[in-house]
Amino acid sequence: MTISPWQDGHGGGRFVTGALSLALFIAHSTAYAQSSESDTIPRLESTECVTEALTELGADCYTFHGHENWDEPGDNRIQVPVAVIEPENGEADEIPVFFFPGGPGYSSLGLRDYMEQLRKDIGNRTLVTMDHRGFIHSEPALECPDYAAVSPYHNIIHTPAITSSLKPMERLEAITSEVEACYQKLTEEGIDVAHYNQYAVARDVDEIRQLLEYDVIEAFGSSTGSGTVLSFIQYHPDSIRAAILGWPWFNHLRNRPPVDEFYTAKQTFTDTLALCAAEDEACREMLPNWMLALDRARRTLDSRPYMVDVGGDTGDGETLYFDGAAFLDTLYLMLPGSYAELPSLLADIQAGDYARLEEFFIIDAYDPEPEAPNYALGYFLAHVCNDMGTNRPTREDSIAAVQTEPAILGFEPPWVCGWWGEDGAVPAEHNDPPVSDTPALAIHGQMDPCCGTRWSEHVRKTMPNLQYVEFQGLGHNPVNECRSTMITAFLDDPNEPVDDSCRNEVALEPWVIEPPQ
Q1: Residue 438 to residues 16, 233, 330, 364: CA-CA distances in angstroms?
Q2: Which residue of 188, 250, 251, 264 lies most exposed, with the fewest beta carbons within 10 A?
Q3: Residue 314's pLDDT is what?
Q4: Calpha distance 48→51 (Å, rounded)
């Protein structure tokens, strides 16, 4: 049935802040009753929870019904699962925290531990979480399961985009053909793919906010979800009090040429070696050329790639090829768990000793039929490409970039967007730098090559009330006590400087200094 927020048995945290006249109350109640009969859009219906985890957490679950195209409503509709989870003591702060999932396209609704961590982070506040449009529990779900076999983000390390050949153009074809096939599949299903982007998601969330009768919200974004939070701030500035930008990926910065973005990540690798050289004299002795060590190791692997046969026991064996580009791509994914061994790994490679590479490339985890069960991979591509708007690279742009730097094939996905069917339906100003006084706290991990503090340094130029912190020794989605302490304190008073004295509570791992034998 269709419900109004005051019919679900919850207390003051769910009501509109401030007094409502009786006339307005009655008028609004009547509107809800009519919406059930006339199938009015937008509307929110009380439904069963879409996952067992939400049921176990005692969530109140709903289905949101909206337009696929808000600007020109047509016959296409979207349905989004929404869950409202109250604090365990039932005495919530009046302003809820809306979680903006990342991935893009990654559903956390079935992961109880993940949601428990979010609840710990936000303290005594109501958590509102959802799958955004196009996610696996939404309708339509933008599913392209075949993309999992070629995507560097979902078939980690062993993707054909990195390991199927020593010829970059052959590797390029493996992934771009699936991108084209995904777009064709979705359009043949009648989905207007252009409307799956941050602009549309921000509108969905604001409609949900209104239907739940909240005056304003606080937003918590994860990775690409932090980019969606910025779009929410951009398009609905009066609907938000404060924002947590968790390990953020901001699309308006990712739209640079892919070679530029690759080299900024490579700087993180060099900075890691600089730490080792500065802290450990034995490290400097083993790698006196530490600023050149990455390039020298790459040249070694380009001239003599590491090759390994896998899957032979099942009759579908193949050879994986790891050249210098594959090494850098893998380091981009694995740095948080490999940084302490990186100096010795580079020294060994330069010496021609590849003994460490079997573990580094996780050969034991090879899977000939990879899946990405929590991902709607069609949404992943739609989000990445649509939010570029008219800033999408052409095929010629991306081919030239791969010829310049083959490691782009296993790096960030925007380079594939020349093979995506059309521009996203976003306003011309969609990729402008965000201009806002909204208080925000950005959280970064020191060993996160994806989303380091340079993002916040850039955004703070136009968002002066942004604070940011870097957690020592941690990577993407850093989890520690300091994170929860800081987020809760920030939400208590977003206009006060946060105490970041705990940011180094996780010690750096001891450097592995083992000179080649």
Answers
A1: 21, 8, 37, 47
A2: 188
A3: 59
A4: 9
